[in-house]
Every structure is written in C-alpha cells, then in structure tokens.
Amino acid sequence: MSLIQPRTLKGFRDYLPAVMMPREQMMQTAREVFRSFGFAPIDTPVLEYLEILSGKGSDETDRQIYRFQDNGGRDVGMRFDLTVPLARFAAQHIGVLGTPFKRYHIAPVWRGENTQAGRYREFVQCDFDTIGTTSVLADIEAVAVINHLLEAIGFDRFTISINNRVILSGLLELHGLADKTVPVLRSLDKLAKIGREKTHEEMCRVAEISSEQADAVLALAACDGDAEAVLARLPEITAGSETAAEGIVRLTEIYRGAVASGVPTRRLKIDVSIARGLDYYTGAIFETTLDDLPEIGSICSGGRYDNLAGMYTKQHLPGIGASLGLDRLLAAMEQLNLLPVASTPAPVLIVYFDEDRRDDYLKMAANLRANGVGVEVYPDSKKLGAQLKYADGRGFTAAIVAGGNEWAESRCQVKTLATKSTTDVAYTHDDPAALVAVLKQQCDSR
Amino acid sequence: MSLIQPRTLKGFRDYLPAVMMPREQMMQTAREVFRSFGFAPIDTPVLEYLEILSGKGSDETDRQIYRFQDNGGRDVGMRFDLTVPLARFAAQHIGVLGTPFKRYHIAPVWRGENTQAGRYREFVQCDFDTIGTTSVLADIEAVAVINHLLEAIGFDRFTISINNRVILSGLLELHGLADKTVPVLRSLDKLAKIGREKTHEEMCRVAEISSEQADAVLALAACDGDAEAVLARLPEITAGSETAAEGIVRLTEIYRGAVASGVPTRRLKIDVSIARGLDYYTGAIFETTLDDLPEIGSICSGGRYDNLAGMYTKQHLPGIGASLGLDRLLAAMEQLNLLPVASTPAPVLIVYFDEDRRDDYLKMAANLRANGVGVEVYPDSKKLGAQLKYADGRGFTAAIVAGGNEWAESRCQVKTLATKSTTDVAYTHDDPAALVAVLKQQCDSR
C-alpha cells in the first residue's frame, strides 16, 4: 500500500503543545474576564444554511465562504464570523433569553482568503456583545472589557481607539454627503494604511465628492492628540451639526466612563477617523492596536449597531460588542517569540525505575494528584539517564526517583531539573505530606 | 425585504447559556484532569484533504463525511473523529515531538448520520492518547484517566468494562477462526444489544462459522461476574492457547494496576465480550457506561492499537487512548434534568438606580472585580422593581442598590435574592473591603 502524504491544507495549521498550551490559557483567561462582567457563553453550529450567511458581509466575504451542498441537498456554509450566527441566534431565541442579553462566544471561523504571514483560513475569534440596550453604559463596559482582556492575557502597552460614528454622520450631513456615507467611510477606513493623500484621491474618485468635501472629512480625521483636547476641539470642527454635537457628548461619556472604570488614560485614544469597513456600525466604534506591533493592525475591534438581526426578525435588537482575533494575536506573539517557554502540562515526572514497583509508582502518582500535584509516570522502565533526559527536554520541574532501597527506607529522591540537585524526601503511600510539600514548593518557585 | 427564517440545520443545535455554562465547565474539568496526568493539548484543522479522512473508518463513516471541493479545487472533508487527524498529525510531527507523546484534543467533529434523540451531526469529542509505547503502564493509566474524568465531571455510579482483544484472538486461533476475526468480532460487538441467540445466528450466517465455533466464542463472552473470579476462570476456557494465556496475564495487570491507581473495584468490570467495531484495536479495550443510564451506550471508549499512523508513515507508532463523547453525555444529562440549575456567569448585579451615579456604579464594579467578585451592572436606569425581577429571573445571588442617600452616607444595600433580605454595608471606592467580604460570603454559601 502506498503511503498518503501527511499534510495540512494551505492556510491551515496544526497546534503543537508548545503553542496550544498558551492558546488554551488565553481562551480560559478570556472566559474568566467575560464572565466577571456577566457575559454568558453560547455556542452555535459551524455549518449554517447558506442563506443565513451570504449577503451579510461584503462581496469579498461572500466569496470567501466555504460552501457546499450537504447529503440532503441543502446549500450550507461554514461560518465566516461569529456575528452573523449571533444575529440568527438572537432572532431565534431572544424570546426565551430576554434582554439585556450578554453573551460571549469563543470559536473558530473560516475564510477562504489569500494567505499571508500570520493569517490563516481557520482562526479562533473571541466575541462579546450586549444586546437589547442602547445605554452608554454598555458602550463604556465594552471598552473596560477590552482593557481587562488584554491586560489579563499579559499585555501592558496597547491602545484602544474610540470613535462615535454619529460625529462623522453629522459632518457628512453638514457637507451634503449623507447619501455618500458608505463609500466615504470605506475610503476613510484606509487612512492609516494608505495615508492622507491617497485617501483624498480615492474619496474624490470612488465616492465622487469634491476636493473641498474630502478636505472637510479629512480635517475631522486629522484631529489628533490628547483625548480631552481632541474632545474639546471637535465641537468647533463640526459646528452647525446638531447630530455631531450629540455624538460628541456621547463619545465624551464613553471616554470618561472608561476612565472611571479603571482604564488607564495612556491606553485610550479618541480617533475620529476610524469607521470600520462593515456598514452596520451606527455609534461607538473601537479598534485596538499593540503599541509594539502596530503593523499587525487591530487585534480587537467592534462597535455599536442599531439592529443586529433585521435580516431574520422584525424585533429591533440594538447592541454593542467587539471581537478579539485570538489566533491572530497568538500568531503575532509566536512570530515574535513572546510566547511563554514550553512547559509540561504536569510539572512532575515519576521515573519508572524498578519494574516490580509499577503499582507503587501508580499509587504514588494517584496520591500526588489527589493532593493537587500534576504528575506523569514514565511509561517504560528505561535507563535512568534516558528518562531524566526526557524530563529535561520536555521541561519538567522535578523528577522523582525511587528504587528498591528508597522504597525499603520509606523515602524517595526528588531531582530538581533546573539545578540538577537531589533531595531525599520521606514518603509512604499513607503519608505523602512531606513529598507534596517539597514538590509544591519547587513548582511554585519556578 | 422579506425576512430569512432564522433556523439551524437538521441535526445541529444552538447552545444557550443554561446548557453552555455546564458544557464549558465539563471541558475545563476534562482539561485539568488530562493535564494532571501529563497529557498536553493539541489542535488540528477542521478541514483536511479528503484522502486523509476517507477509507479510515467503515464504509458508513465514509458516507457520513461532510465533503466538498474548496475554491482551489481541492477535495476536502470535515473531520469525523479526532483519531484520524491524530494519526496524520503524529506522522507529520512525531520527529519534533518525540515519544512517549501524550496528547488530549477537545473539539467538535461532524457526521452526516441519521439523527435520533440525543445524537447530533455536530458534537464535541474529548480524546486522550499515549503514543510510542507498548507499556502496560499506559493501559492502566488510561483506565485511571477515565475514572478521574467521570468522577471530576460529577458522576459516581459508572462502570468501566475492560477487555484484552488478544484473549479473543487466542480463542479464535484455537478454534481455527483466525481468518474470520473481523466478521466474528463485528457480530460479537452486538451481543449486548441483540442478545445471545441473534448474535449466534448472525455469527454463523455472516461469518460463515459452525454452530460449535459460535458456541465456543460465546462461551468466553458469557464469562461474567466479579473481576477476580472472571480472571481466574479465563485460563480454563482458553486452555491450549498460548496467545490467550499471555492476554490474560496482561488483562490481569491492567485490572490490578487500575485498582492500585485508586479506581474503585465497584467501577471495574472484566468483559471479554467487548470488541469494538473498529478493526484497529489490538490489545486493551475499554467501554464505559453510566449505571443509571445504560441505554445511552458507552460514553467513553477506547483501546490499544499497534500502528496508529501506518497510512501516512513507515514509522511504527503503537499507542493507547480513549474518547469521551462529551456532547452525548451532556445531552443525556440535559434530557434527564441532571444539569446544574442555571446560574449567572457573574453572581452579583449592581442596580443602575441613579442615572447621575453611572460612573460610580462602574467604579464600584471595577473595584469588586479587582477583588475577585464577578459583577454585572444593569445597563439601563429602569425602575428598581424591573431590575430586581431581572436579577431574580437570571439567578443572581445578590443585588447591590445604592442611590443618593447611600452614596452620601458611604454605604449601599445588598439584597440577597434567595431570601429577599437586605443588609446595609459600608462602601467607598477607597475601601471596598466590607462589601467584598459580604458578597464573597453570600456567593460561597450558595
């Protein structure tokens, strides 16, 4: 029989333990942060009716959907984000769930896009949303969640850029551009990437607006610097627009509320140029960048929307939420060697030293686990050197060696792998306390 | 615009918070148990080249694969289990990983099978395997892991049935049936379901063996009762087969090792009739049933295999593992109302009482979270009654009410929702200790 080449599809990847361990840790951290704010977990199917998924994002998103006919002849697709499934879910279940409904969802999504460094066709997103309220408190809370989330994952230097799309809408109204909102915002969204000049040119060409109109939009976007200073300058730039004035009040509330919630001011930026490509944001908008890795773009984005599930229900469901690109963040950390050094899932290895003592090693292991010490037993009674080499290579903290003499004398040797030192510790199956104490101390001090 | 009906595909389901919370808890418990034995997490893509997946299970499995051509014209499929991806993964990465390699993998799989109560086309499996050793220690450990896993999830009454396929092989050899192993085992596997008579009939018809031969096989399978007694009777029934004798020694080691590892004897059964449908098991075989729900079948099965990745590599990789049908277990628990009563992800609700105090509520929430108390702030300043009704309905433990008077007097009211009692507690943003203590005490006592 000829062998089948073991390989993954282009744009897909395996997660080996050294990366999967911190990845699992990140997901668990995210769950704990979300829960501490009262967000509850949900899950939805990977496959949805294609009609649920298609036509919800851009044409590009539509092309990227993995789609096929299932065995029952149904047109189905794999979800490309967690927002469209949330909209479908909310339309279907909101009667049971009630509002406000706060959910998080941590799950993979698929996009058949062209691959590039750090971008995959399968990646985990980490979304949270508050549905059924237009309260500014929910907007503020979203900023606080983003801050907690990144802090808990281990980042200190990051910037959460905040905007309120209503200010832009007011300005566009003021300059007679209300019907050009979508193409103007699309162009504006590229400002950081392609610069002022090219954005100006694209606005005039694609949105078909005048050079003066483009100047007015870009004047707002150029409003930069300290948050309180930007907030103070905005009324002047948008003078004459009541819509913009209301938007500025709300943006100020979000900013000051975030500060009251404990978000450090150094991490907050008012950036009236961010608009997000998606058309459905109608109020607050967020983007988050790592100060030391700005080139990877926003790693946590979101905003307020007026009507989440209008495609599926007549019930009006406003809400706010954001999405952390967990795998994107992980790929960046991996690329930059920021991931914690690989360690073993259990910190202690019991060396399988004396074949006749197999059941004793197993009992010792059960005893240690019952006392909260994770422990692996080497499965084969190989030479001591080989087993210690394995322990070293995998990153165990300590190895326990016990042969006939040690068992006879109710003790064992604990080898500290980092220092290559050995300690004799008393042990019997009936009294593991001394060994537990030594191992816990060694694991804690690592 | 006409509405699109919000619905899930047949055989798929949404997980609402009341079910998703215990489901997440189960997954987290499983991770902790696996890690405590030194198993490390991995992840693999949902989509694989179809040639990796097809022809690995039965014809039925092949038909059930969700398969399609991707945009690049590749034939791809969604994984139907976690074993085939593990085989591909091991073939690809074992050089880097080294052996013994112990991994766990908790992830959904897809099978387009006919749906029935409690069975879905998308479900989470929870697998663990030890690769690269033939040691009986790994077999014993697998039994210990299954025991810990179910105990940690919350079960007490379950039975782990153990067999060693080698004993059956010896018996088949003895009766000249070595070349009929597969059809005989296929029939034998149905014994519990269809009974002795029908199994006998099927063996004779499908495997084309004599009635006497079928009797001999079924005599072994009828060996029932106390584990040590069964082990003592087996040599007689298989007398004359050296293969069977070796198999009995190994099975005895697994049983006694499991007991040494702390698995209660009441949960262990020697069942020489279990063979598992899959052809690749070559040694130990496990099945696990819930004593109070035997009708749902095995909820954790596995066994030893000789050569995991023979389709993809010439490297010989023996191993042992088992798979917990996590969603199947969850569906059974849900059906039988065994799931814990829904509770909120955060136990405390801050009532949004006084609109002018928004930033104070947010500060209080941040303060409590920083002290380890999960807390949700109601987003809208609705009437007190409506907010307390929400708190009651969602299952919060306590609600905090603070209006102008309370803030002025540096205190707040803590309403215990179960007892409808109210306590006055001192609170300032600078000194939250008293409030933290009261809330922690209330959450702990629930």
UniProtKB/TrEMBL annotation, chains A, B:
One of its GO terms (molecular function) is histidine-tRNA ligase activity. Its main location: cytoplasm. It is found in: Cytoplasm. Its EC number is 6.1.1.21. GO terms for biological process: histidyl-tRNA aminoacylation. It comes from the Bacteria. SUPFAM superfamilies: Class II aaRS ABD-related (SSF52954), Class II aaRS and biotin synthetases (SSF55681). Residues 1-345 form the Aminoacyl-transfer RNA synthetases class-II family profile domain. Pfam families: HGTP_anticodon, tRNA-synt_His. It catalyses: tRNA(His) + L-histidine + ATP = L-histidyl-tRNA(His) + AMP + diphosphate + H(+). One of its GO terms (cellular component) is cytoplasm. Keywords: Aminoacyl-tRNA synthetase, ATP-binding, Cytoplasm, Ligase, Nucleotide-binding, Protein biosynthesis. L-histidine binds at residues 81-83, 111, 125, 129, 276, 280-281. The keyword Ribosomal protein does not apply. NCBIfam families: hisS (TIGR00442). Belongs to the class-II aminoacyl-tRNA synthetase family. Homodimer. This is Histidine--tRNA ligase. The lineage of its organism: Bacteria, Pseudomonadati, Planctomycetota, Planctomycetia, Pirellulales.
